Amino acid sequence: MPQSLDSLNQNHSLADRLRFEAGEGGLTRAVITTDTCTGSAYLHGGHVASWRPTGGEEVLWLSGKSNYATGQPIRGGVPICFPWFGPNANDPAAPAHGTVRTRAWGVARTAADHTGVTITFHTAEPPWDVRLAVTFGKTLTTALVIVNDSETQATCEAALHTYFTVGDVKQARITGLSNTAYLDKVGGLNRRNQGSDPITFTAETDRVYLNTTARVTLEDPALRRRIILTKRGSDATVVWNPWIDKAAKMPDFGDHEWPGMCCIETANVGDHAMTLAPGASHTMSATIHAESL
To answer: How many CB atoms lie within 10 A of CB 171?
Structure first.
């Protein structure tokens, strides 16, 4: 049964640090205000929607055309892709990027300490039990915990599909993935190598970088900042920007919004899909830090 606003605020609010309210489209969201940041997250999809360090600019990007409705994904922030990524290999009619990003999650617990405010969301997608712990503070940490709650081995994919705000994607560059092999989804899934140059954006970009646990840095001269993404429990990193033509084809993405964003996704997808024994669990996490250039 969905948790009401009254119940959420009675059981999970944290004084002046965390409250629950009706957000866009009437969907329930948590609003965080601390000495080190402000932020928000929707129960719909267990979806982190914003994180702004005190004294800085918003780090996450949301489309002005995004849907906020039951059964629809939110475009931007940190969607949770699970238990598959992209199209379902066994069912072309199944929704892209899995099922959990379009349903209401529950709040399992909230807590606050010197590192910030943590919200733990919960949902289930048999055979999987799924939790997402999000800590809002000087850094933003998202940790996706999956458990095979069955008596047989099972395989899944997962991604923290993080959208970042940039001043101008044509000026931005990503370092940390030098000499890493990747699948070029725009170029017909051909396997390529990044070489020694940083990643820059000159056209539609959709790449799955393989066999990498590396820390990645997004340098953004237009906003005079860098964003540093550190991850654990992830062997793939996805980099995406739709550019002009694809943005125009997406009804929940503004035609002229593409220069202001790029995605760097913490993932276990494709060859790095996870196979878990009965009762086994896996944690995949990403920590984001922003600083001035």
So the answer is: 15
Beta bridge partners of 148: 128
Active-site residue identified among 12, 97, 161, 257: 161
Give how far Cα 269 sits from Cα of 67, 78, 84, 137, 265, Å: 26, 17, 8, 29, 11
**Does position 89 have pLDDT exceeding 90, yes or no?**
no
What is the rounded distance in angstroms from the CA atom of residue 123 to the CA atom of residue 147? 11
Q: What is the pTM of this model?
A: 0.97
Q: Is 125 a catalytic residue?
A: no
| Other residues' Cβ atoms within 10 Å of the Cβ of residue 52 | 18
Contacts 24+ apart (CB under 8 A), 241-244: 241/169, 241/201, 241/204, 241/205, 242/204, 243/201, 243/203, 243/204, 243/205
What confidence tier does 1 reach under pLDDT thresholds 50, 70, 90? low
Residue 265 — φ and ψ, nearest 5°?
A: -110, 130
**CA 225, CA 211: separation in Å to the nearest integer?**
28
Concerning whether 58 is annotated as a catalytic residue, the answer is no
Which tokens hold the place of 1?
């049964």
Nearest to 82 by CA among 30, 42, 20, 127: 127
For 191-215, the pLDDT digits (tens) are 999 999 999 999 999 999 999 999 9
Query: Is the pLDDT assigned to residue 240 strictly greater than 70?
Result: yes
Q: What is the mean pLDDT of residues 218-233?
A: 98
Instruction: Choose, from 204, 265, 272, 291, the residue flagged as catalytic.
Output: 265
- The model's confidence at residue 151, banded by pLDDT at 50, 70 and 90, is very high
Q: Which contiguous run of DSSP H or E holds residue 55?
A: none
Instruction: Tell the residue number behind the tokens 């931007």, with chain if given.
Output: 76
Q: What are phi and psi of 12, to 5 degrees?
A: -130, -5
